[in-house]
Amino acid sequence: MRYLFLLYGAEQLPESGTPEHRKMFEEYTAAVQAMADAGVLISCAPLQPATASTTVRVRDGETLLTDGPAAELKEQFGGYTLVECADLDEALKWAATMPAAAERMVEVRPLVPVEPPA
Fold first, then answer.
1. CA max distance for the chain
2. Which end of the chain is more exposed for a tag (fewer CB within 10 A), N or C?
3. Which stretches of the chain are assigned E, i.e. beta strand?
4. What is the reported pTM?
């Protein structure tokens, strides 16, 4: 079963090159490397800031574009990790190793298995 870890946190991250940024990067690298070593990691990536996003809505056949995120929240979705685990319990154990779980939050969501189109 595949699970998506949605990593949430404050919009403002430590400035690149600072000791805080290096520490954060090292912690995430260690967590992701452990998942890769265990064979559960499929993909992961941080996101650009929410201010770089564009929200797309189609209403009455008209495409409406809005700069910025769909919702103004104190914490923003900042990255994801996609894993394949035996069950939810295993996925939750891996999610707990993510630094975001200790500092902010990680939402664990199972993917719906879908057959690719023929």
1. 50
2. C
3. 2-10, 41-46, 54-59, 62-67, 75-84, 105-110
4. 0.83
